[in-house]
Amino acid sequence: MISEVGLSEVQIFLDYASVFIFALTGALVASRGQLDIVGFIFFAVLTAVGGGTVRDLLLGREVIFWVARPNLILAAVAAALIVFLTAHRLESRYRTLLWLDALALAVAVPAGVDFAIGAGYGAIIVAMAGVITASAGGLMRDVISNEVPLVLKQGELYLTAAFGGAITVLALDRLGFPHGWGLIACGAVTFGLRAGSMVWGWQLPVYKRRAPKVQPGVDPRDP
């Protein structure tokens, strides 16, 4: 079984931080649904490890990261218990959820990118690994809770923010900057884009359907 031996301190920190913060968001969703403690733990663990699990399966990793390091599950359970005991004190659980999710995104993208770079993958796979690690768990959380997924909300910079962060670290690595600084910049760009979307309404152009042109002599009601 793979343990934390042989992993860099950066990888270990990013994995634990990503798991813990995403678990907080999953537990907050459970609190909004007024679930019991088991429901809190289910949503916390699902959200925390979902993205990394999909990434590891797609990249053919021999042992899924949380199977190799079960303490990550304990971190997610701890986050669920914290939210279960304190969620009622929050003025707006949804607003807190959004900001925690943005922070988790800013940690998970560097975590996925760092893993893929360490495994020797090229730029496209590295970027995809960062995006999948950061988005798949939250997507599962929102779908199961019957919410419109944050990653698909109209005009939201979510996947774009994740791609922006991944591209940042790849560019800085190519330019010869220390890898650690590249990961920090990755997180900062990701969080900055996501926060800008929430606070100032930054968004990409949205497709707007246009009425079809009516040709002379053609009834527009005809199929």
TrEMBL record:
Q: Which domain of life is it from?
A: Bacteria
Residue ranges annotated for the Glycine transporter domain, each copy included = 13-87, 98-173
Q: Kindly indicate where the leader peptide sits in this chain.
A: none
Gene Ontology terms: cellular component: plasma membrane
**A Pfam family recorded for this sequence:** Gly_transporter
Q: Topology versus the membrane, per the UniProt entry? A: Multi-pass membrane protein
Q: Which residues cross the membrane?
A: 12-30, 37-58, 64-85, 97-117, 123-144, 156-175, 181-202
Protein location: Cell membrane
UniProtKB keywords = Cell membrane, Membrane, Transmembrane, Transmembrane helix
Q: Into which family does the record put it?
A: Belongs to the UPF0126 family.
Q: What is this protein called?
A: Glycine transporter domain-containing protein
Q: Which organism is it from?
A: Paracoccus aminophilus JCM 7686
Q: What is the lineage of its organism?
A: Bacteria, Pseudomonadati, Pseudomonadota, Alphaproteobacteria, Rhodobacterales
